[in-house]
Amino acid sequence: MEFNITESIQILTKTPSVISNLLKDLPETWIKTNEGVDTWSPYDVVGHLIHGEKTDWIPRALIILGENEDKAFVPFDRFAQLKNSSSRTLKQLLAEFEELRTENIQKLQALSIDEQTLERKGIHPEFGEVTLKQLLATWVVHDLGHINQITRVMAKNYKIEVGPWTKYLAILRDKK
Amino acid sequence: MEFNITESIQILTKTPSVISNLLKDLPETWIKTNEGVDTWSPYDVVGHLIHGEKTDWIPRALIILGENEDKAFVPFDRFAQLKNSSSRTLKQLLAEFEELRTENIQKLQALSIDEQTLERKGIHPEFGEVTLKQLLATWVVHDLGHINQITRVMAKNYKIEVGPWTKYLAILRDKK
């Protein structure tokens, strides 16, 4: 499938409500349990998504499309949310994510992206030249990947309780 | 984590709105694309979930808790939705799933399940004796597994479009 900006915005717009729907009102154990050492809980994932809204997707799109000739991206810290052990509730994090995402979608729409704009380039610290289209497609897949992760982390809470049915539940064997 | 009936009902109640939220208003291509031969599209998954509401979870719970001495489950056809090539829209399927799930949660609540009830048994066609607790834990994990699958199938639509970022997007390499 080819990248489509309208469809991508549709999916990006859905993410905060999908995640909020999945997690809201669940007890702390479902929110804070992870898959073991160096893995993330649903709570950590929401913190990571917030950090992406602040430092990754739109800031990088603006580097690509801005006047400045230096097109180098600032490296994205994929573990930032783990360093700031936060005292905020999940509810507060979900509200912040939704607010930031709404603002960022508005900024994205204001860029009036067309086929030509999508081919403009920035410099990724590891990959070198990348296009705006690749950045935006990655944003969509990154969202879906973290919804995927949240459902997997949650499912594993009942790994033992399903008994013999584990045989037909591939999600319980999926790795981090 | 130990099985908890209240928390399980919370999660089971969320599923129709989570899936509807993920899929509604998306173009046909996002709904009907699958991962290749013998894999399911998001549309197929919703059909499968409907079939489970009709023939699997609550019917089996009622066999376990009912008066009848024969505790053998009817085998569940995991591919039923593929046989009835349906002309129904996704919107109709989502509405049917939500309606059936609401009814089934009401039936589940009416069973007033306690610790003792959870240990009662039925006979699975392949596994032999299974408990009501295992059946209900499986229902929860099965839901989460299919939300997980839908996000993975969707993400793979942009497998090529993400360019070099594929390296950091494990969801694009996850198997069916």
From TrEMBL, chains A, B:
Coiled coil spans: 83-110
Keyword annotations: Coiled coil
Origin: domain of life: Bacteria
Family matches, as InterPro entries: DinB-like, DinB/YfiT-like
Statement: the UniProt record of this protein carries the keyword Cytoplasm: no
The keyword Coiled coil is assigned to this record: yes
Domain DinB-like: 12-150
Protein name (Swiss-Prot/TrEMBL): DinB family protein
Organism (species): Flagellimonas hymeniacidonis
